[in-house]
Amino acid sequence: MKYTEFVAQLRGYAEEEFAEFQRRLIFTEYEILGVRTPKLRELAKAWKKDVQTLLAFPNEYYEAVFVKLTVVASLGYGEFTKTFKRVLPLIDNWALCDSFRPKSLKGKEKEFLPILRGLLNRTGEYERRYALVTLLAYYVKEEYLSEIERALRQVNTEPYYVHMAAAWLVAEVLVKYYDFGVKLLNAGFLDAKTHNKAIAKARESYRVTQEKKANLNAMKIKKDKR
């Protein structure tokens, strides 16, 4: 399939009203056509056997990049890691970042850690967010709690989408490993906005008891204290 045919295919599924909705939520340099995610995932399945042709296509449209990332995420671990550095720079918004979840990472968490560690000090906002949301998706387990703490201590959470990912990660730790999550909060290395946002997110969860929610609420940092 030629690139013009691929774009025509995307345009055939585009909905302008949905595109307008997405443009209000997703801030990206790519043009948004308004193709719904289930259809994009369906299109991606057809490209799994011709990944290199797909990756050679221009990156004009959000949907085209989504399909590329979805195909790469479906590859086996070896092929995924070979292609990962090529496609990571394509991510320029939270939606692409958070949906890029490689299936082959399950069972390979330990092997992938050096790559995640390398992303935490990168200058790109979405490189750092990707490291944190990947920790959230695959590593909130007892054996990786110290790794999560290390990552949170290391990463600069000043950019908005990094800050939100860090808060989300801490909140999930609080939900699953409450005592360790409290330890993270009490350690004092989180900036006030991330600290408080993590508490807010954890308190929204039905998996946290009312007693724990009250305790967390009491741990919020007042604006004049930090």
Order of helices and strands: HHHHHHHHHHHHHH
Task: Based on Cα principal axes, name the global outline.
Answer: globular
Oligomer: single chain
By DSSP, the count of extended strands is 0
Q: How big a fraction of the residues is strand?
A: under 5%
Terminal CA distance: 57 Å
What is the third-level CATH name, the topology of the largest domain?
Serine Threonine Protein Phosphatase 5, Tetratricopeptide repeat
**What summary fits the major beta sheet?**
none
Overall average pLDDT? 95
The DSSP helix count reads 14
Rg, nearest Å: 19 Å
When the domains are counted, the total is 2
The CATH architecture term of the largest domain is Alpha Horseshoe
State the helicity in percent bands: 55-70%
CATH class of the largest domain: Mainly Alpha
Structural class estimated from helices and strands: mainly alpha
Low-confidence stretches: none
